[in-house]
Specification:
This protein is of the alpha+beta class. It is 28% helix and 33% strand. It contains 4 helices and 7 strands, in the order βααβββαβαββ. Helix 1 packs antiparallel against helix 2. The longest helix has 16 residues. The mean pLDDT is 95.
């Protein structure tokens, strides 16, 4: 795999939206479960908003966009009451949102490479406390993050990104 991760550009938005749609189709066909809803989250607007905030990153492999994620310091509101193992000031926390890898690139180490980039980025920007979340029913993501050393600190019932009835798993790790 010859991949590199970089800040997204406007011309990447179509490819990122295609990955969102591809994952939603995979879910509708019963091959994966994310808990996302077509037309609600994630959408092309999700990527556009992140691009405008300059916190959308993309992963290229052989010149093709195969992954994307939002990396910033914006903690979701339900993070406030979580039993974090590492109490940290907001400016010391880096959050990974909406990590997506095109199903066509599955099994090539793209997700692992993206999480490594996220961890390195957090260290480089001086905010080494890593937080993220996933739907409790997204067992694939939960296993993946566990293998990478992330700890589940709680599960919070909530409305998440406009989707009702979500049990949100909160995960954390300290980058080193």
């Amino acid at each position: 795999m010859d991949s590199r991760i970089r800040k997204a550009r406007a011309e990447d938005l179509e490819a990122v939206s295609r990955i969102y749609e591809h994952i939603l189709t995979e879910q509708e066909q019963g091959r994966v479960y994310t808990g996302w809803e077509r037309g609600v989250y994630p959408t092309a607007q999700t990527a556009m908003d992140a691009l405008e905030r300059e916190d959308l990153f993309v992963q290229e492999d052989g010149g093709r966009i195969v992954g994307a994620a939002i990396i910033n310091r914006q903690q979701v509101d339900v993070y406030a009451g979580a039993p974090w193992q590492y109490p940290a000031a907001p400016e010391a926390v880096t959050v990974l949102h909406t990590l997506v890898i095109d199903p066509c690139a599955k099994g090539k180490g793209c997700g692992r490479a993206f999480v490594r980039f996220y961890e390195d980025y957090a260290l480089r920007t001086g905010s080494p406390f890593l937080r993220m979340d996933t739907n409790a029913k997204n067992t694939g993501a939960r296993r993946f993050y566990e293998k990478l050393g992330y700890t589940e600190v709680g599960i919070v019932p909530c409305v998440f990104n406009g989707i009702a009835g979500v049990d949100l798993v909160l995960l954390e790790k300290k980058a080193e």
